[in-house]
């Protein structure tokens, strides 16, 4: 599995933690930015870079992306503008499972303020990431049909 990671200033520090965590787990990843903390950066460029990388990879590599911003929604909106991208904002393990199992979500959008709030020793983002990475797409006919319908818009 090839992973593309992107974050604006709101998700920059969580992305750094995520990179170390994925390396420890043995995943191959590529950082599409931002490469340094810039309080004036904008999330759409990182979502675009990640989405185009996912779409440009060989499907055999099971390409996916993890995008992080303050609330997650902006990254999801930007990524979902690309046909073939199924980005979901996820805040707990249950949703991580469902979006992979039923919807074959290929982009995980994390809301940093929820899963890694400043000043709190919370790391539930790890269980979210683990569940999302480890859950296979069920491949049921109705799920495949629904995903194909999304790409028609």
TrEMBL record:
Keywords: Isomerase. One of its GO terms (molecular function) is isomerase activity. NCBIfam families: PRK05571.1 (NF004051), rpiB_lacA_lacB (TIGR00689). Belongs to the LacAB/RpiB family. This is RpiB/LacA/LacB family sugar-phosphate isomerase. It comes from Candidatus Southlakia epibionticum.
């Amino acid at each position: 599995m090839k992973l593309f990671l992107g974050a604006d200033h709101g998700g920059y520090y969580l992305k750094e933690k995520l990179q170390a965590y994925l390396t420890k787990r043995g995943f191959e990843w590529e950082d599409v930015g931002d490469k340094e903390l810039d309080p004036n950066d904008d999330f759409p460029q990182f979502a675009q870079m990640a989405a185009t990388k996912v779409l440009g990879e060989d499907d055999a590599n099971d390409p996916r992306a993890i995008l992080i911003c303050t609330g997650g929604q902006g990254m999801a909106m930007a990524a979902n503008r690309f046909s073939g991208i199924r980005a979901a904002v996820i805040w707990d393990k249950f949703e991580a499972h469902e979006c992979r199992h039923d919807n074959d979500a290929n982009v995980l959008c994390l809301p940093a303020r929820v899963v890694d709030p400043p000043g709190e020793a919370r790391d539930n983002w790890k269980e979210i990431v683990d569940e999302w990475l480890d859950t296979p797409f069920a491949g049921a006919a109705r799920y495949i049909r629904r995903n194909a319908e999304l790409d028609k818009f």
